[in-house]
Amino acid sequence: MRNTFEIRWHGRGGQGTVTAAKVFANACMQSGRFVQAFPDYGPERSGAPLQVYNRIGHKELRMHCPVSTPLFIVVVDASLLSLVDIAAGADERAFFLINTAHSAKEMKKLIPLKAKQKVFCVDGTGIAIDSFGQPLPNSAMVGALGRISGLVDLDSLSQAVEKSFGKKFSAKTIQGNLDAVARSWEEVATREDKSHSQN
Question: In terms of CATH, what superfamily is 4-196?
């Protein structure tokens, strides 16, 4: 049984990737786990590639270095697949979650996968546009990660989103983000890479 789960997020500035990692950590913390969430990026500018890390543990977390062997890799912007080695250092049983309307089968062709690694896809941007009218996939990716990781339940995720956004946005926008979390939670399960489902 793992005591610590490491997550690496790949996104671009302005997509809400840092917020997504913090929201996910807060949801896990509310569920009684120890958490870390911290970014690693260069000059802050819209569109610039960035990485964000989470550690989620059953015990106090004493490591504070960047995540080097993530079990979960979340790709918020699929265009990064041609620019960044998202598989670098990935656990041999890693789960890749990609924001795309394409299938996991198609995405597998772009990632140097090991035998027991899995790919999941969810159209986070499309869900966001449908849910609250903006192409910001962070809430959708939080919901999908919650589902595939099993680290937190949907209620805890929804509470963390509402708490994080509560003082910044209108009730309508908050509800739209909550809808995005719930929809991606459901949809990611139907788009699993079935060819790996028995591993």
Answer: Pyruvate-ferredoxin oxidoreductase, PFOR, domain III (3.40.920.10)
